[in-house]
Structures are given as C-alpha cells and as structure tokens.
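Q: I have 196 residues here and want to know how they pack in 3D. Can you give me a structure?
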Amino acid sequence: MYWNDMESYALFLADHPVDQSILETVLTENLGAPYELYLTEAGRGVISSEADLKTLFDSLLPILSDDLHQPLTILITHRSDTLSEAALNFCHRHKKGRCLMLAEAVILAYLNHEPKLTTLAEHYFDDVSFEAMATAKAFVSTGLNASRVAQKLYLHRNTVNYRLQKFIEQSGLDIRDYHNAQLLYFCTLIKENAIR
C-alpha cells in the first residue's frame, strides 16, 4: 500500500489490545493536524497524518504507554509494506516502547544480523530503474543537492529533477526528506556489502 508522500505513518504494536479511545484522545489533544487511525489487529495499527509524527511520539510515547498500561512500539515510515512490518516486529522485540524511523530500524537490524529484515532491505529498491536509482544515490551522496548531482553526472538540472521524480514514483519514497534519504542510503549500503 502506497500513501501520499506528504503524509507520514506511525505503525504501532503492543503486546495486548490497545484502547482506541485513549489513542484518539491523545492524538486529538496533541497532534494539531488531521489524522486517521486504523486498528489492524487488537494490538497493532497505523496512524497517518501530515504532521511530524516522529517529534510527536518522541515526546508523547512515555505518556501514551503509561495511559495504555503497556509499552507501545512505534515505527515511522512512508508506507505499510513487508519491510515496514518486519521492521516494526524487530523493533518490538529489541526496542520495545521506543519510536524509531524505518531507516534506524533497518540499520539496527543489519548490525544485529537480523537476516529476514536485512534481506528485505537489500532488495527494497530492486524494482527501480537503473537511471532513477543512480540519480537517487547521487542525490543522497551529494547531501540532497540536485545542482551538484547535475554536475557530478554531467546532466542537465531538469534531467536530474525528472529522474528524481521517477525514483519517487517507482519507489514510493520521497528522498527529499532526510529520513527517507537515510533509508535509501542504508539499504544501498546493505546491498553493496552483502556477502554472496
């Protein structure tokens, strides 16, 4: 499932069923932006909003976990897919009660030799075209500077922008956002260092 690149998503997981009314009350009182809340299972769900969910949950998570009488693990991501779900499960096993970005979870899984999550990260961008991927990697390596990418790859700035847009369309990941750029960087690093 892909979502609008302006929104961020907080996938959450708890050991026991979560009281939806408590979640809704906390979000309504603190978010300051429209949100949608989906409970996919008793202790699992998704919150979507255009607000900065990472900053919100970094400050609210201790209060929310206390109100729910159990630790809540939150993963901030750009879409719900196999990698995000595996990362949420990994975080709940190893970083229960924390709020992490998908990029942080991926690199922690790699460092902890988590084979399933590492393999998913290694192949996360396999469906992206070569040109779009090369341009996106150059964009990340130049500090998210499209003008420097154009110079580095000997391309016109419009071509760089076109290829970056193609990358965003093909991957569902808007790498103009720092945390999303980190995800591309870590997945690329894992792929380049995979032992064959």
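Q: Anything worth noting?
A: The first helix runs from residue 20 to 30. Residues 1-5 have pLDDT under 50 and may be disordered.
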